[in-house]
Design brief:
alpha+beta, 8-stranded antiparallel β-sheet, 19% strand, disordered N terminus
Length: 303
Amino acid sequence: MRKILIIIFIFLLGCGDTSQEDYKKENERVKKIENDRRAYMDKIKTISLFGVHFQDDVRKLAFYSTQEVTDRNGLYVGNQITEFPSLNDFNIEIIPPVKNENFIKYYAYYNPFSYEIFAIAGELPIKFSDFLDEEYRNYASLQNLPFSKEEQAFKMCKEYLEPFVSAIDDGIRLKTNLVSDNKNFERINNSQRGFSFLYRMNSGLNDKYLYFDGFPEEYFGIKTKKQITQDNYREPIIRLDANCVKYAFNENLIIILSHDILRDYMITDLGPLFYKKVSEKKLREEKEKLEFNKNTLNKSGLQ
């Protein structure tokens, strides 16, 4: 009996050593994959446009850099663009570290809480109307624009934008191995055509605990509730857009590079939260003003 107990004890002791060794190996594996993931995301952080990187502080670049040109809610007031309808309050003209002679103005979209940049845009000196004959360079004439003239204008606009888009695309591919959903110059609606490149995660650093290429949001401190049903799904992270808009014929062409995850988070969470806080602040101030006016009012005969 004693021999049996000794054998069992030795066996359990051996199992303990194996368990500790397995734990050590697993711990080293986890540390390595976390470091590799961080290194992969750091490469994505090197992507820039005009020397501006995503999550740079817009306050260091804003053309209007003093607090005197922010409104009472902390948003910059000045020249803006209207590329993202629900986020247009959150952009401002900037002075980038690296200017390009082909562009006349530069803009950045930013998080109103942290002032971190999530989209960078450049304005070109050319309008869609520059690709039309003189007689069609007004809104009324566009209603009767011959199909052949419209096709010619879109073709010229495509040829003008394509070298810029291609050069930016080359830079992104040089710095990362992101998978691109390349879209050629495509019809978006009846009055708009353009380029739209969507760059997706391609790290391969997935394990049974985290499908990293599908859920990179955690790297940015974002908790996601999304569910993935598609096999080998890769989350979009960078977007490059350059559009020609027929009825925006008096507006200069814009090329915009955005961080898709941070932009979507602004649309779904941070933007609505900001407006909620602004609304609550307004109601609180109105209540305080009412109380002040009421307290200083001559109430004789009113009560």
